[in-house]
Design brief:
This protein is mainly alpha-helical and about 100 residues long. The chain contains four helices and two strands; from the N terminus they run H-E-H-H-E-H. It has a single domain, classed as Winged helix-like DNA-binding domain superfamily/Winged helix DNA-binding domain (Arc Repressor Mutant, subunit A, Orthogonal Bundle), CATH 1.10.10.
Amino acid sequence: MPRAELLEQIYTIVDQIPEGRITTYGRIAAMTEGATPRMVGTAMRKLPTGHTLPWHRVISATRRVADHGGAARQLEKLREEGVVPDVKGRLPAHLMWP
């Protein structure tokens, strides 16, 4: 499948994540026709300026925010939605989507 089509699938899935819920790079990849978790992460990093996708709701399989330049902003946005990590930095399993 061409890369542009996979990106479109990834972005369509991310756009469906409800407020106050989270999902992983791997879960999104599994919903596509051939993307890998790494491809999903790359797609999140390369979102165009001004996009409205809820990128902050996509986390690592460990239920932690991945270590990247936007991690503090991601945690801030999640907290605004009531998604708060535990003392070890893990986000609540019961908020996983789908």
